[in-house]
């Protein structure tokens, strides 16, 4: 079974999966490897990283030297297709005009979704992150423990390939031997931050990113990942052999034609398609889940964007993996006599408790890093980070906010872009001519940018519902967002600013921007960090949640949501590794339930 | 994706510039200002952008995505000023020899929001520059010798120190210098000039050598 058009779909499937990103990719992969017949619907066009990735192009080959535009908001060579903060013909709205209460929604309409250009930072949630309410009385506990998910973190790391190492730090889990790829050497600036950070008590350690620093062991890993399934082992081994290790050049956000980093399109979909159990219809915009008189899901209605025609497909189990907010939208639009408020939404909680990550940033110029001639391309993104280091102080009530953050930072001499030598008059006192060229060489690569990424606690004011008026170009009602940060987040953002200023000072650097004293001003708007989760939260009580711990909706036994929707808290750890691990666990359980005849 | 490099201090933070370091592969460290896109007026004529799914594999040249709009004399002024700001030296060629002025033409002719403002800044700046050259030396800027050109540029090269009568010129000069630097340092010659040695596939990534660590005091 392959990439097909609408006219070629089978009369029925075991699973219909909506979306082909991290969640859809993992769900379909897990299911087809176990022999289930799966139809995947993807709203975007097909995308082929091997031939479409502008690996070595330098910015002078791009219009506007690759600078961002509304057509390509993260720059010309960013791999996002038909996406960004706005998607043509597919609006979303905001309930408030107040900029602080707006939610920013980043989407990509392409095979593989946002996994083609994500940052690849892949951190495990720790034990505290699953039981936040038990720890500090705020938000919700997950209906599962770290130990429940740990085996799936192991498998996901082995499958996608994640570099990093273990430091035994609080709530920053170690991975068992054999899971992680070796971390890359630290860049000069990263080592400097590590050395100077010590005085401030900051642990600067290798970050975990989904990049292969060496080829995967195709003789060992498939057997660990799929014990007792020789066919899956063979398919995966072939797929692993087709991936190369990182060659230490070309930014990962463009995608990776040699398949050295994780994209659904280079990691999940090739072996899944090779299994013969997966059909994918691209350009298929799912509108609603259909149900029968008993309230069971029967299939999906979608618009074929190539023809504008409506199609209906049937499946025994329906999995929404369209990204958390989009899955909410599909559910709210799936109205019937049985579910007048949208499918599986009798308690009105679909769309509630959406979350993003707290973000704030500060940059400094570091004289010690001037004039260091090195090739620092490395593995695309950062090689190091600073996990949250104040758990004890926070628990002891010494901080005025409840949850932690980690620090990502960027150093090094990257491929020149429009930003490389601009605004330099701030330190070059207006030089031009030969002096300017000397200054450019001197300051190039001497700037360090710090970005905090913090835990957000779900709140009643952050949710989405259907806009009563606005529809997209296919006539489908669109989402309306409501947003508010609490003081736990804004105070955390203020703490980030103070910390970054201290680090820049410890580096002997000068600030390039004033640290913001007001956390409400320092914090990035909701959605800007593009870690949107929640909206179909999981829980132990059907009255207070939308799904159980298996991402199965309480009300419709054969309807699952495997994207970030079921997250009932949003730890500082970037969400995607957890999305994949949860999707894998949910799909294993779903297949077992199907076998038992329970769905 | 791209580097933090040298972002501007906050008040002058140019969004298009700032976005470059946002694009670190570390995640969405976004400073993209949506409002900046929404508020600015559309630019040069009815030209269209390259769309949301452009060909990333081909080598684009200024003028291909939308027409260039410099007049012959504007182009000549751009060439002259590019080379005053980024002249040839032992590390690299003069900026105009690698097409920096064509890039600036592409930039100010672009149909995207924000570019209209740059268009006005740059074209008004050319007018100001020629008027100033006429006033001081009775010649066009392009006809001045190096010393005469420097006499004007020295008055406008540093905005915070510019006299009130030179403020407009200084604002123009700062923007032009940023654009010229972006245009030049992104070319293969410019990348070599600034000391970028990456974008080549390597067997191994070794990290900094001992002498660099010693210099940093962490060996
Ligand atoms: C620049 C950037 C950097 C990031 N960095 C990181 C990082 O470092 N670490 C991290 O953990 N996360 C990061 N993220 C977030 C990460 O990309 C997401 O968490 C992840 O992709 C979510 O997976 P998903 O499958 O839920 O959604 P997506 O990857 O967005 O996939 C959803 C897919 O569903 C399709 N779809 C949507 N609606 C429909 C419909 N109605 N019918 C059919 N198909 C539909 C979409 O077209 C899309 O292809 C980053 C994101 C961005 C944009
Ligand atoms: S840095 Fe490595 S993993 Fe990232 S795109 Fe380049 S080769 Fe691929």
Rg on CA atoms of chain B, Å? 20 Å
What is the arithmetic mean of pLDDT of chain B?
83
Percent of sequence in beta strands of chain B: under 5%
Determine the number of helices of chain A (DSSP H or I, runs of at least 4 residues).
16
Summarize the structure in words:
The complex is a heterodimer of chains A (599) and B (219). Chain A is of the alpha/beta class and 599 residues long. Chain A folds into 2 domains: 1-50 and 108-164 and 213-356 and 532-599, FAD/NAD(P)-binding domain, CATH 3.50.50.60; 169-206 and 358-454 and 486-522. Helices cover 25% and strands 16% of the residues of chain A. Chain A has helices spanning 22-33, 49-52, 127-130, 132-136, 146-160, 188-197, 221-225, 230-241, 264-274, 324-332, 391-395, 425-428, 434-443, 487-506, 519-522, 576-595; strands at residues 13-18, 38-41, 93-94, 205-206, 278-281, 284-291, 297-304, 309-320, 352-355, 358-365, 384-386, 405-410, 447-454, 463-471, 477-482, 510-511, 533-535, 559-561. In chain A, strands 1, 2, 5, 6, 7, 8 and 18 form a 7-stranded mixed sheet that branches. A 6-stranded antiparallel sheet of chain A has the order 4-11-12-13-10-16, with helices on one face. In chain A, strands 3-15-14 form a 3-stranded mixed sheet, covered by helices on one side. In chain A, helix 1 (22-33) links the parallel strand 1 and strand 2. The radius of gyration of chain A is 23 Å and the shape is globular. Chain B is mainly α. Chain B has one domain. Chain B is 47% helix and 0% strand. Chain B is built from 9 helices and no strands. Chain B starts with 14 loop residues before the first helix and ends with a helix. Mean pLDDT of chain B is 83; it is low at 1-44. The structure holds flavin-adenine dinucleotide (FAD) and iron/sulfur cluster. Flavin-adenine dinucleotide binds next to helix 1, strand 6, helix 10 and helix 16 of chain A. Residues 211, 246-247, 249-250, 252, 256, 258, 260-261, 379-380 of chain A line the site of iron/sulfur cluster (SF4).
């Amino acid at each position: 079974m392959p990439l097909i058009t609408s006219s070629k779909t089978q009369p029925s499937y075991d699973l219909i999966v909506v979306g082909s990103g991290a969640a859809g990719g993992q769900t379909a992969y897990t299911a087809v490897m176990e022999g289930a017949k799966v139809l995947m619907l993807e709203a975007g066009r097909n995308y082929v990283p091997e031939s479409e990735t502008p690996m070595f192009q330098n910015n002078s080959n791009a219009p506007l030297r690759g600078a961002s535009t509304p057509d390509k908001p993260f720059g010309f060579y960013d791999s996002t297709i038909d996406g960004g903060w706005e998607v043509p013909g597919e609006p979303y709205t905001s309930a408030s005009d107040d900029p602080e209460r707006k939610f920013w929604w980043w989407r990509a309409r392409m095979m593989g979704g946002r996994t083609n250009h994500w940052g690849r930072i892949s951190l495990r949630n720790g034990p505290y992150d699953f039981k936040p309410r038990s720890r500090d009385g705020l938000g919700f506990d997950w209906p599962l423990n770290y130990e429940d998910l740990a085996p799936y973190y192991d498998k996901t790391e082995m499958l996608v390939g994640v570099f990093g190492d273990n430091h035994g730090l609080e709530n920053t889990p170690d991975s068992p031997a054999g899971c992680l790829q070796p971390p890359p050497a630290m860049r000069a600036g990263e080592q400097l931050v590590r050395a100077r950070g010590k005085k401030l008590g900051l642990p600067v350690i290798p970050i975990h990113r989904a990049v292969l620093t060496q080829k995967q062991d195709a003789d060992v890993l498939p057997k660990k990942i799929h014990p007792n399934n020789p066919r899956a082992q063979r398919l995966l081994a072939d797929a692993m052999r087709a991936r190369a290790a990182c060659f230490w050049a070309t930014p990962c956000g463009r995608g990776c034609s040699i398949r050295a980093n994780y994209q659904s399109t280079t990691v999940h979909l090739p072996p899944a398609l090779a299994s013969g159990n997966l059909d994918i219809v691209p350009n298929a915009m799912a509108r609603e889940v259909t149900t029968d008189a008993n309230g069971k899901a029967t299939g999906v209605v979608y618009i074929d964007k190539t023809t504008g025609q409506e199609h209906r497909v049937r499946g025994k189990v329906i999995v929404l993996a369209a990204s958390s907010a989009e899955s909410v939208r599909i559910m709210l639009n799936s109205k019937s006599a049985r579910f007048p408020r949208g499918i599986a939404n009798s308690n009105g909680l679909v769309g509630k408790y959406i979350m993003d990550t707290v973000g704030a940033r500060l940059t400094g110029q570091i004289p010690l890093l001037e004039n260091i001639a090195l090739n620092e391309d490395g593995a695309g993104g950062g090689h190091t980070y600073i996990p949250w280091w104040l758990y004890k102080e926070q628990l002891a009530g010494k901080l005025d906010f409840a949850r932690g953050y980690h620090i990502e930072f960027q150093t090094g001499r990257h491929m020149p872009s429009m930003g490389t030598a601009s605004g330099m008059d701030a330190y070059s006192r207006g030089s031009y001519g030969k002096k300017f060229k000397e200054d450019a060489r001197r300051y190039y690569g001497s700037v360090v940018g710090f970005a905090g990424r913090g835990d957000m606690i779900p709140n009643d004011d952050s949710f989405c519902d259907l806009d009563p008026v606005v529809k997209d170009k296919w006539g489908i009602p669109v989402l309306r967002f409501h947003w508010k940060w609490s003081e736990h987040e804004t105070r955390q953002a203020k703490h980030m600013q103070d910390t970054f200023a201290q680090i820049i000072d410890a580096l002997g650097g000068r600030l390039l921007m004033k640290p913001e004293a007001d956390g409400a001003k320092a914090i990035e708007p909701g959605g800007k960090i593009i870690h949107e989760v929640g909206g179909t939260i999981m829980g132990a009580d059907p009255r207070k949640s939308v799904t159980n711990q298996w991402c199965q909706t309480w009300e419709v036994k054969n309807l699952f949501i495997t994207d970030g929707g079921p997250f009932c808290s949003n730890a500082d750890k970037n969400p995607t590794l957890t999305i994949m691990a949860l999707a894998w666990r949910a799909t294993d359980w779903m297949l077992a339930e199907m076998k038992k005849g329970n769905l | 994706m791209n580097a933090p490099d040298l972002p501007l201090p906050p008040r002058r933070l140019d969004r298009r510039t700032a976005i470059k370091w946002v694009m670190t592969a570390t995640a969405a460290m976004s400073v993209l200002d949506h409002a900046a896109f929404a508020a600015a007026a559309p630019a040069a004529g009815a030209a269209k952008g390259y769309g949301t799914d452009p060909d990333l594999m081909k080598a684009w040249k200024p003028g291909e995505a939308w027409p260039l709009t410099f007049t012959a004399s504007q182009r000549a002024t751009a060439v002259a000023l590019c080379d005053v700001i980024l002249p040839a030296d032992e590390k690299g060629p003069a900026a105009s020899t690698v097409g920096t002025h064509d890039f600036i033409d592409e930039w100010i002719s672009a149909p995207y929001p924000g570019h209209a403002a740059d268009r006005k800044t740059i074209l008004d700046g050319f007018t100001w520059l020629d008027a100033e050259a006429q006033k001081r030396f009775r010649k066009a800027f392009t006809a001045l010798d190096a010393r005469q050109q420097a006499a004007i540029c020295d008055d406008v090269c540093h905005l915070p120190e510019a006299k009130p009568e030179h403020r407009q010129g200084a604002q123009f000069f700062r923007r032009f210098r940023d654009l010229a630097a972006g245009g030049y340092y992104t070319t293969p010659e410019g990348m070599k000039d600034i000391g970028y040695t990456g974008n080549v596939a390597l067997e191994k990534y070794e990290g900094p050598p001992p002498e660099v660590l010693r210099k940093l005091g962490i060996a």
